Recover the amino acids of this structure.
């Protein structure tokens, strides 16, 4: 707490309350306050605020507008899948539901401006009205005229209105090609480690002392700060793992001040959390249950990504294997891998690979149906007729998204496919049919 | 809420002011909307159209005529004058009475609206496009006693093009009906329009009665202005000749010629402070007006651009030279820009400022840019020739 917010238009007490709710954002809040000026003054037509996720953009705006009781409309551009919803929400929060019902069924921008001006003439703004657009980057995908119009809405509707755009993307990627009114660009910088510590330490558990909780946060940041600076994520992790941290204390093994022992206890636990709960492999609920069940080792539970086993028919497995081989092997090596008598092997020449990058790094390559079937017949030992069921299995592999069709121009005549499964998956499949796939892969020669 | 509001031009409350001096008098006479009684230099074309329409009216048959010519060669004015003369002749009972209607492709929201407008002007009926087409079809194919010849003028024919070309087809097919008594005059800008956009059955029905209006020569332009001014002494002879020569060399557009003359009178009026002026529009005024009209706005824009913008354009050209291509990404140009900044002894600008400069130039169309969401990877092209940019940057 360095400076308390100051502004002549608002009472000291109220500003004090605002400042309490905005730790480590005094500078930005003060800047915004001075931009907004006194309520009856005209503010800048549009302000663009950008910063990383969870850097307090929405929170600061929300607290400022709420505590100072300024008329405002908060619109999330994710929710507004059409401009109709956006216009309705703005009118609703400024003029009540009568105004929103005045809009025609699919309103254009000029309808909105007309209704706004009409309402505005009945109830002119005594204070600056604020429209806060969250996730403003989605405005670029709407009609081309919407963003430029919002930027100079003050001019259009001739009302004391300010549009505030919040986004994670810099302004340079917003600017329309035909130019527009330039908003005032503000940046919210990331929280530093100290600031994160300060904010996270605020929501401490009431039954433990503040120093105890802050030492816990210190350990947590020590583990997670290198991979994650997202305040929301860190707060979530802190809440999840705190009960584990307190366990030795409840058992009476250590005292609150014995930081080193507490650290020894929690550190491997947090490391494991990074691999499981942070990646959402194990849900938070499962994680909490696991903490209660002592005997069951955390992380022993199979996460989401371990559930990649799919039951497939016998020939579908071979089709998938053939597709994988066709995708990751160059076509010129097919003769060597899949033909019995393919002539003399010049061992020295063949074994030496001159490609520098492996095909597994470049990703799968498309192959024709003919090649897939040729490899399929070669890898399956028994004789199989090319029945309708084999071909329908190929197309059902496509619907299962294990294969993808590459070019859509010709469905029947020589379609091309790509194999869309990972190495681990195909190894698991080939183990079930006793097929050694690694022997047939050119990359692993 | 005004749901059915029709846009309209505010009406004039005071009558138009009478011209007080020679220059104002000249300006009203030179206004494009004050079409003179007779059109000079188009006598031959007038005669051709007149005799074509007159013969059709007298024989009570139908036919089509296609009139082409670049803008400002007097196509519409000539046809209107023909119709005025014919109307006059019909009033004097020299020829049988006829009905004249006019449609303009530019004034329609949809090509099929042509049917609606024709029907409304013929009978005053209102109908949907399909219904109107059916009614017109019936009207033109069935015999009726006491039917007058209809003369239909279709301006901006190329806008009536549809994918199946049924509007054009009908317009040219009706005159060939035995009982139609319809004369269709069509106007468009390009000479080879029938060959280019019409399918064979439409082009063949249009027929071979074609007329093309040549651009005016400088003598004709001079004559037009002289006839407009009609003894009002406002211009020096040489000034008029300069205007007409310049315009004739570029386009031969009479409207542009009149515009330049009117602008020159304005310039003359504003510079009337010095006593040495004779009160006539002289060479210098005309030169100034010509420069205003014909000089490229791009060069002026580059000359007035900020230092960083000019530097950026220079960087674009330097990068094009290095690559040997006419296209580069912003990234590549920006490296050149930074180097140029150092050479010029300026503080190198940040990427964000560089993008702002680039997108400002793109917004005034000096550069052609891709959507800004591509960031530093957007490709940059010049919308003006490199020589123009170099010329504008050099003359400082």
């Amino acid at each position: 707490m360095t400076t308390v917010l100051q502004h002549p238009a608002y009472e000291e007490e109220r500003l004090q309350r605002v400042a309490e709710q905005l730790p480590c954002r005094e500078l930005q809040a003060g800047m915004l306050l001075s931009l907004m000026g006194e309520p009856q003054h005209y503010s800048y037509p549009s302000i663009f605020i950008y910063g990383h996720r969870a850097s307090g953009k929405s929170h600061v705006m929300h607290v400022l507008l709420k505590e100072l009781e300024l008329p405002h409309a908060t619109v999330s551009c994710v929710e507004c899948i059409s401009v109709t919803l956006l216009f309705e929400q703005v009118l609703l929060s400024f003029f009540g539901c009568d105004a929103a019902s005045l809009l025609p069924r699919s309103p254009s921008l000029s309808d909105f401006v007309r209704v706004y001006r009409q309402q505005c003439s009945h109830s002119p703004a005594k204070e600056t009205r604020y429209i806060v657009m969250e996730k403003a980057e989605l405005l670029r995908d709407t009609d081309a005229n919407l963003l430029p119009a919002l930027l100079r809405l003050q001019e259009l509707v001739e009302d004391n209105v300010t549009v505030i755009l919040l986004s994670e993307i810099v302004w340079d990627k917003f600017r329309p090609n035909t130019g527009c009114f330039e908003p005032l660009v503000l940046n919210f910088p990331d929280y530093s480690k100290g600031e994160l510590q300060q904010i996270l330490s605020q929501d401490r558990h009431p039954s433990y002392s503040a120093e105890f909780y802050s030492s816990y946060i210190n350990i947590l940041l020590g583990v997670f700060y290198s991979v994650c600076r997202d305040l929301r994520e860190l707060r979530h992790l802190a809440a999840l793992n705190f009960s584990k941290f307190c366990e030795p204390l409840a058992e009476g093994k250590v005292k609150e001040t014995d930081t080193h022992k507490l650290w020894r206890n929690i550190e491997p636990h947090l490391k494991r959390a990074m691999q499981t709960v942070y990646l959402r492999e194990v849900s938070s609920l499962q994680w909490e249950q696991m903490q209660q069940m002592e005997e069951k080792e955390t992380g022993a539970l199979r996460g989401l990504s371990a559930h990649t086993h799919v039951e497939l028919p016998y020939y579908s497995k071979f089709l998938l294997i053939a597709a994988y081989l066709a995708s990751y092997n160059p076509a010129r090596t097919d003769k060597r891998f899949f033909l019995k008598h393919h002539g003399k092997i010049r061992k020295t020449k063949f074994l030496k690979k001159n490609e520098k990058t492996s095909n597994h790094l470049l990703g799968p390559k498309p192959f024709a149906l003919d090649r897939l079937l040729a490899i399929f017949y070669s890898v399956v030992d028994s004789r199989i007729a090319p029945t309708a069921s084999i071909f329908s299995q190929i197309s059902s592999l496509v619907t299962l998204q294990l294969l993808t069709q590459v070019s859509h121009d010709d469905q029947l005549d020589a379609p091309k496919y790509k194999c869309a499964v990972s190495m681990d998956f195909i190894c698991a499949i080939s183990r079930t049919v006793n097929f050694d796939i690694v022997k047939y892969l050119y990359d692993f020669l | 809420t005004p749901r059915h509001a029709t846009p309209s031009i505010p009406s004039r409350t005071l009558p138009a002011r009478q011209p007080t001096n020679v220059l104002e008098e000249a300006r009203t006479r030179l206004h494009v909307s004050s079409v003179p009684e007779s059109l000079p230099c188009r006598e031959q074309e007038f005669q051709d159209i007149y005799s074509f329409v007159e013969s059709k009216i007298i024989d009570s048959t139908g036919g089509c005529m296609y009139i082409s010519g670049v803008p400002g060669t007097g196509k519409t004015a000539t046809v209107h004058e023909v119709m005025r003369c014919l109307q006059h002749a019909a009033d004097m009972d020299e020829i049988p009475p006829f009905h004249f209607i006019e449609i303009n492709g530019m004034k329609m929201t949809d090509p099929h609206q042509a049917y609606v407008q024709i029907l409304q002007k013929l009978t005053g009926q209102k109908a949907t496009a399909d219904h109107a087409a059916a009614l017109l079809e019936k009207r033109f194919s069935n015999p009726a006693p006491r039917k007058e010849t209809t003369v239909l003028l279709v301006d901006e024919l190329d806008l009536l093009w549809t994918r199946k070309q049924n509007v054009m087809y009908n317009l040219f097919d009706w005159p060939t009906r035995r009982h139609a008594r319809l004369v269709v005059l069509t106007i468009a800008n390009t000479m080879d329009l029938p060959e280019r956009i019409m399918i064979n059955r439409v082009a063949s029905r249009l027929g071979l009665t074609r007329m093309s209006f040549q651009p005016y020569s400088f003598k004709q332009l001079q004559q037009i202005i002289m006839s407009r001014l009609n003894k009002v002494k406002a211009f020096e002879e040489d000034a008029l000749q300069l205007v007409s020569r310049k315009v004739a060399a570029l386009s031969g557009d009479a409207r542009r010629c009149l515009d330049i003359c009117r602008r020159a009178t304005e310039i003359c009026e504003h510079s009337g402070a010095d006593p040495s002026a004779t009160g006539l529009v002289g060479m210098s005024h005309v030169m100034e007006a010509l420069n205003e009209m014909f000089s490229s706005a791009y060069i002026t824009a580059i000359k007035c651009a900020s230092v960083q913008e000019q530097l950026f354009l220079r960087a674009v050209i330097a990068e094009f030279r290095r690559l040997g291509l006419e296209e580069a990404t912003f990234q590549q140009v920006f490296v050149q820009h930074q180097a140029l900044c150092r050479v010029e002894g300026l503080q190198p600008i940040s990427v964000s400022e560089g993008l702002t400069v680039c997108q400002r130039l793109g917004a005034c169309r000096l550069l052609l840019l891709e959507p800004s969401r591509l960031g530093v990877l957007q490709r940059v092209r010049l919308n003006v020739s490199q020589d123009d940019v170099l010329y504008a940057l050099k003359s400082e």
Q: What stands out?
A: The interface with chain A takes residues 1, 351-352, 355-356, 359-360, 362-364, 369, 371-373, 375 of chain B (CB under 8 Å). The beta strands of chain B are 63-69, 98-104, 149-155, 182-188, 210-213, 328-329, 367-369, 379-382.
